[in-house]
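Priority: medium. Attachment 1 of 2:
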């Protein structure tokens, strides 16, 4: 037991920090001196790999989806990436679909004029009615906009 190791995900440590009082926050800073607990989530999630690190999973590659038919493989992989990115950006928040008063935001995309693919247009708020998969909603308009603009190539792979 003397050499036992305790593993904790970045997301769990960050959630504990966010919920903790000042003494608990100081303890977490001492236990994890290399982690910047004050950094905004949008500064920490710049890639799918960053999101995987925060959520505590090993990043997948397109090869992990070899059992999916060729025609669907890229969009399935992109959906996986987007769900992990949304999970990381939401920092443990999950939409309560029974709560009609809880705002839930998703990106709204328009087809790019003269080009291919979609471009981020605006974020929209939905209540009980949803036009987007529940795993791709965000707790704020700012997060929905950040995801839509930062990960536009992944959204294009998913939507097209």
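Attachment 2 of 2:
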């Amino acid at each position: 037991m003397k050499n036992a190791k305790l593993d904790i995900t970045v997301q769990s440590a960050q959630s504990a920090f966010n919920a903790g009082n000042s003494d608990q926050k100081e303890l977490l800073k001492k236990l994890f001196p290399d982690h910047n607990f004050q950094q905004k989530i949008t500064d920490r999630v710049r890639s799918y790999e960053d999101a995987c690190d925060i959520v505590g999973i090993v990043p997948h590659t397109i090869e992990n989806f070899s059992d999916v038919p060729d025609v669907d493989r890229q969009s399935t992989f992109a959906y996986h990436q987007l769900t992990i990115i949304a999970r990381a950006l939401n920092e443990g928040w999950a939409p309560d679909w029974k709560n009609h008063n809880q705002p839930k935001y998703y990106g709204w995309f328009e087809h790019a004029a003269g080009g291919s693919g979609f471009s981020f247009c605006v974020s929209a708020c939905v209540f009980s009615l949803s036009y987007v998969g529940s795993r791709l909603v965000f707790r704020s308009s700012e997060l929905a906009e950040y995801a839509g603009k930062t990960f536009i190539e992944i959204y294009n792979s998913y939507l097209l």
